[in-house]
Structures are given as structure tokens and as C-alpha cells.
Automatic annotation (TrEMBL):
PANTHER family: NITRATE, FORMATE, IRON DEHYDROGENASE. The keyword Ligase does not apply. GO terms for molecular function: 4 iron, 4 sulfur cluster binding; ferredoxin hydrogenase activity; iron ion binding. It holds the Pfam family Fe_hyd_lg_C. Residues 1-78 form the 2Fe-2S ferredoxin-type domain. InterPro entries: 2Fe-2S_ferredoxin-like_sf (IPR036010), 2Fe-2S_ferredoxin-type (IPR001041), 4Fe4S_Fe-S-bd (IPR017896), 4Fe4S_Fe_S_CS (IPR017900), Cytosolic_Fe-S_CAF (IPR050340), Fe_hydrogenase (IPR009016), Fe_hydrogenase_lsu_C (IPR004108), Fe_hydrogenase_ssu (IPR003149). Coiled coil: none annotated. Keywords: 4Fe-4S, Iron, Iron-sulfur, Metal-binding, Repeat. This is 2Fe-2S iron-sulfur cluster binding domain-containing protein. Residues 137-168, 180-209 form the 4Fe-4S ferredoxin-type domain. The lineage of its organism: Bacteria, Pseudomonadati, Thermodesulfobacteriota, Desulfobacteria, Desulfobacterales. Residues 78-117 form the 4Fe-4S His(Cys)3-ligated-type domain.
Length: 574
């Protein structure tokens, strides 16, 4: 620890802390548009300049480490003036389109302009006219609004190792865009939306599909059924002032009913179903000598990555569809039959923490297993929050309501799907039952939890060793894949039997469509919310969900049956 002073107040901080973080620990907010706790700081925007005792220059707090005995001033009228000028200069290069911007109300630049009372911009306006890129179904790039903070490039390269976005050009002419001026759809982009979650302004944002859901609700011909993903319930509260990790499942159901949807289902039901299908596939491969490790395939950005960059691993992918797609297929078959509603009259929507799910719904012809598009629209958590607000609903005072039967009920195992390691833990809870037909005494598997980028564990079940690995954030997957490939190419036993991969750091709880300002602190709080929800669940193993047992009895026959394959499994392509 070292001793410093911030704004004349003594404090102790860890050696190596940046002035920016030290100030944060002291409860002082230094503005910045480029630094983000997930990313390596690079001092691009210059807003975080501070004064250092005995130093004539003004260093940038994000890239300056504290030094023993030094006194720092973070705010005074002179620093405020400098910051104000920087904001004015950025505004002179920024379109004045706040009212219709994808980030209106949550833009970090807008907040700064407001806080600095900027009423006019004293510099000549100089906006480069560049077209919007709406080539993906997931996110929109509006390069005119780019303030060159670099967060999108850094997140795409450092956290995701995808390199779809690059710094192009130099100095004042630097642009952040797909290499060679290509469209995003032609780039290696996997649609994870992490760039949109880290962009401070409206240069990258989720494609807004709220109107599609509202139009369907307005159409008296349509029966609108909505499903909600595991991770939405621990995050949407943040948009209404609740702490990250607060579970609001019942209020989300209530809000959607008030917005006018006809049936509320839960993706968690199909998460339980995925465990039955994927678990059966795993046990089959394990006992009959199939390709191992089995790798999870419920994250569409991960599927996209695998298809684009590691197609040789496709045989390792589970053929089980993601819970969202299973739910969609069942909505237009099992549920439609039960309710005697023609499937063409059902509009199936999904609320997801993820921008990539918007693309998954048309990824492959298998996504039309019901004979129609199984999921018609995906809205992110952020879009649902806006929809709730525009509908005049006081979210916090809503009663807790229940989902609709029969594809709404779920177990604790399904809830934790939204956290890294959750699918693995849910599978382990049911795996023993699938192998032996009897129950295992252990329900929680602490060894697969946590935030380490790659986690491995060895689990002993019935005298057999099961080696598992979990990776989250695409940048963490490469080493794991190399290890698996090497063993395969050398004809050795696979290093793991089962591998879970989620493209976003922390898993879906930190998906690209979740409320803004996600940091590791927020991730941990949301994850804690998921595990708390699980712990309070009456039933905590997927195979014990009575509605899952019923759907097999009434409709799907057995896990892995012909019918299950037709509706619940998919193929991958190079
Ligand atoms: Fe996830 Fe899912 S857990 S991918 O992270 O498996 O988006 O929340 O909905 O489908 O269930 C996201 C979250 C889902 C799916 C589930 C899986
Ligand atoms: Fe990169 Fe993901 Fe953004 Fe695509 S969506 S540009 S992969 S961060």
C-alpha cells in the first residue's frame, strides 16, 4: 500500500493503482469517455487530466499510476474549464441528433454536455458524412457519431479476440470500423454486441425491434407469446434504479401482461429441456464412444465464431438447439396444439440479454422447425426496459405474477444458465440421474463457479472421473481449443469430456443487450442474483421439473427421440 492525497485528503491505495481508480475509491468521479474497467486504458479522450503536485504538465488519470507521498487534484475551476473545452470540441465533430439517437437518455457525452451546461458550441462544426451500417440483424453502426474513444475496438480485440473492428487511418483521421471498409456483415463479427454495450455514445447500438412486438400486439389476429431469458431477470431492474442482481421475474411477467401480450413463457423451461437433450447426447457420446469433448452450443455468438473460425470442431458441438429456439419451436407446436391456435396465428417473441439472438432466429433452416419461423422477434433487455417505460408502467410497484402453463415453469438449474458455468452445473446435476437412473446427493458444484476466464474441474461421479472446462469471453477460448485439438490430432484421450463456452465475459448476465455500465462488480452482483434464485427454488434439477416430465410423456416421447430431433436439434455449417 502507498500513501497519497487526493484533493488534499490523505488515503491509502494499492501500489499500481491508477489515479482514476484511486479517485473512484475516494468516491470522486473523474469524467472519461474512453476508459472502461474492462479495458486497458489508453488515454485517448483527455478528459481525465489531473494536477499533480510539483508537476507542470497535466497527466491523464487513467494511464497515470499513483506514487508514494504525491498529492493529486482532480477537480478545480481550471480543470473544469479544460474538460469543458474538450467536450465542446467533441461536440463540434458530433451530429446534433440527440432526440432520435439510439443512445438518447443513456449517452455519456450527452450527460457531460448537460453537466458542463453547454448551451452552444464555440467551434466550427466538422462532421464527416459516413453511411450507417445496418448490415447485421443485431447492431447498427453509425460512424458519424463515433468519438474515437476506441472502446469498441478494444473490447472486440481484447475481450473477444474477434478483431472485427479496427482503428483505420491516423491522427485526426482515425476511424473505428470493420477492416478494409467492409460492412459488419462481411467482417468476422459474431454479433455479440459487446461493442454496443461499451460504446459511450450512439455510434453503435442494438437494432431496435420494439415496434415489431407492438405491431403484433395491435394485430387482433395474432396470439402473442413471449419468453424471457434467464439473465434478464437479474438485470432489468437496473433500468428502474434497482441494484444489479435484484430478481424481478414476477414483475417482468406482470409488465408484459400489461403491455398486452397474450401468453408469458419462460426460456428457463426450455433450459431444463436443453439439459435433458444435451445431457442425453453427452451420456450417449460418453458411453458409446462419440466425439468428445461435447461443447455447448446455446450461445449464438459462440456458434457463429465456431462456424467461421474453427469449423474443424463442429463435430464436438452439441446438436441441441439453444433454449430460446427450443421454446420457440414448442410454442408453435406443442402449445399451439394444446390451445388449438393455428401456428400462423401465433407471434413468438423473446426477451434476451443478447444482440446475437436477433440473428440466431434466422441462423439456419432448422430455426423453422414448426413450419414457420419459430421465434419471430428478439428484444434485448434494454429494449424491454424502454417498452415498459413508454407503456407508463411503474415497474417497481408491479405485483409479482406467474408465467403461463405448460411451458413456463422451471427449476433452479435453469436460472443459473445465465451465469458462466451455469449450464455446466445444471448438466452435472442431471447427468448422474441420466447415467444411473438414481439421484445424486450433491446439488451444487462450487468448483465450476467463478469468474476466472478458463476454469477446469475434475468431478468424480460413480467412480468415474469427469473432466470439464468452462470458458467465457471469446478471447479465453483459444488456448482451450488448442489443447483439445492437440490431443485429437495426436490420437490421445481428450483433455475434457464436457466444455461450456459463453462468448461474453461472465456469461449472458453480461450479454451485449443488458443494461449499460456493466463492470465486473455488476457481473458478480448479477451472478449472485442467479445463484440466490436457484437456492430459493423448490426444485433444483432439470429432470425433476414436472412439466418437463409431462412434455416428454405427452409429446416428445424421450430425450433424443425422433420428434425431439426434429424440433429441438440443429446442424452447423462451414
Ligand atoms: Fe442465455 Fe440461454 S442462458 S444463451 O446465456 O443456454 O442470451 O440469459 O437465454 O437460449 O436459457 C442468453 C441468458 C439464454 C438460451 C438459456 C442458453
Ligand atoms: Fe466485435 Fe462483438 Fe461488436 Fe461484432 S458485435 S464488432 S464481434 S464486439
Amino acid at each position: 500500500k502507498i500513501n497519497i492525497k487526493i484533493n488534499n485528503v490523505p488515503m491509502e491505495v494499492e501500489k499500481g493503482t491508477s489515479v482514476l481508480m484511486a479517485a473512484k475509491q475516494a468516491g470522486i468521479h473523474i469524467p472519461t469517455l474512453c476508459a472502461h474497467p474492462d479495458l486497458t486504458p489508453w488515454g485517448a479522450c483527455g478528459l481525465c487530466v489531473v494536477k499533480v503536485e510539483g508537476m507542470p504538465k497535466l497527466p491523464r488519470a487513467c494511464v497515470t499510476e499513483v506514487s508514494e507521498g504525491t498529492s493529486y487534484i482532480t477537480h478545480d475551476p481550471e480543470l473544469n474549464k479544460i474538460r469543458r473545452t474538450i467536450v465542446e470540441m467533441i461536440l463540434s465533430n458530433h451530429p446534433n441528433e440527440c432526440l432520435t439517437c439510439g443512445r438518447s437518455g443513456s449517452c455519456e457525452l450527452q450527460t457531460l454536455a448537460a453537466n458542463f451546461s453547454i448551451r452552444e458550441v464555440p467551434f466550427e462544426s466538422n462532421i464527416t458524412e459516413l453511411p450507417k451500417d445496418e448490415s447485421t440483424l443485431s447492431i447498427v453502426l453509425d460512424p458519424r457519431k463515433c468519438i474515437k474513444c476506441g472502446r469498441c475496438v478494444l473490447v472486440c480485440q481484447q475481450l473477444q479476440d474477434v478483431w472485427a473492428l479496427e482503428f483505420i487511418g491516423r491522427g485526426d483521421h482515425t476511424e473505428m470500423m470493420p477492416a478494409a471498409g467492409a460492412l459488419l456483415s462481411e467482417s468476422p463479427c459474431i454479433k455479440c454486441g459487446q461493442c454496443s454495450a461499451h460504446c459511450p455514445v450512439g455510434a453503435i447500438y442494438e437494432r431496435d425491434d420494439t415496434k415489431k412486438l407492438l405491431d403484433a400486439i395491435l394485430n387482433p389476429e395474432l396470439h402473442v407469446a413471449v419468453q424471457i431469458a434467464p439473465a434478464v431477470r437479474v438485470a432489468i431492474g437496473e433500468a428502474f434504479g434497482l441494484e444489479p442482481g435484484t430478481i424481478t421475474t414476477g414483475k417482468i411477467y406482470a409488465a408484459l401482461r400489461r403491455i398486452g401480450v397474450d401468453a408469458i413463457f419462460d426460456t428457463n423451461f426450455s433450459a431444463d429441456l436443453t439439459i435433458m437433450e444435451e445431457g442425453t447426447e453427452f451420456v450417449d457420446r460418453l458411453t458409446k464412444g462419440g466425439v468428445l469433448p461435447l461443447i455447448t452450443s446455446c450461445c449464438p455468438s459462440w456458434v457463429d465464431y465456431m462456424e467461421k473460425h474453427c469449423a474443424d470442431m463442429i463435430p464436438n458441438f452439441s446438436t441441441a438447439k439453444s433454449p430460446m429456439m427450443m421454446q420457440g419451436a414448442l410454442t408453435k407446436t406443442y402449445y399451439a396444439d394444446k390451445k388449438e391456435i393455428p401456428k400462423e396465428k401465433i407471434f413468438s417473441a423473446a426477451i434476451m440479454p443478447c444482440t446475437s439472438k436477433k440473428f440466431e432466429i434466422v441462423r439456419h433452416k432448422d430455426m423453422y422447425a414448426s413450419g414457420r419461423q419459430d421465434v419471430d422477434v428478439v428484444l434485448t433487455t434494454r429494449e424491454l426496459a424502454r417498452l415498459i417505460k413508454q407503456s407508463g408502467i411503474d415497474f417497481l410497484s408491479l405485483p409479482d405474477e406467474e408465467a403461463d402453463s405448460p411451458i413456463g415453469a422451471y427449476t433452479g438449474a435453469a436460472t443459473i444458465f445465465g451465469a458462466t458455468g451455469g449450464v455446466m452445473e445444471a448438466a452435472l446435476r442431471t447427468g448422474y440421474f441420466l447415467v444411473t437412473g438414481s439421484e445424486y446427493e450433491k446439488i451444487t458444484f462450487e468448483e465450476v463457479r467463478g469468474m476466472e476466464g478458463i476454469r477446469t474441474a475434475s468431478i468424480h461421479i460413480n467412480g468415474k472421473e469427469l473432466r470439464v472446462a468452462i470458458a467465457h469471453g471469446v478471447a479465453n477460448v483459444r488456448d482451450l481449443l488448442t489443447e483439445i485439438r492437440q490431443a485429437r490430432d495426436e490420437g490421445k484421450e481428450p483433455p475434457y469430456h464436457f466444455v461450456e463456452v459463453m462468448a461474453c465475459r461472465g456469461g449472458c448476465i453480461a450479454g451485449g443487450g443488458q443494461p449499460y455500465n456493466t463492470t465486473d462488480e455488476v457481473r458478480n452482483a448479477r451472478i449472485a442474483g442467479m445463484y440466490a434464485d436457484d437456492q430459493h427454488s423448490e426444485i433444483r434439477c432439470s429432470h425433476k421439473n414436472p412439466f418437463i416430465q409431462e412434455i416428454y410423456k405427452e409429446f416428445l416421447e424421450t430425450p433424443g427421440s425422433g420428434k425431439a430431433h426434429e424440433l429441438l436439434h440443429t446442424h452447423y455449417q462451414h
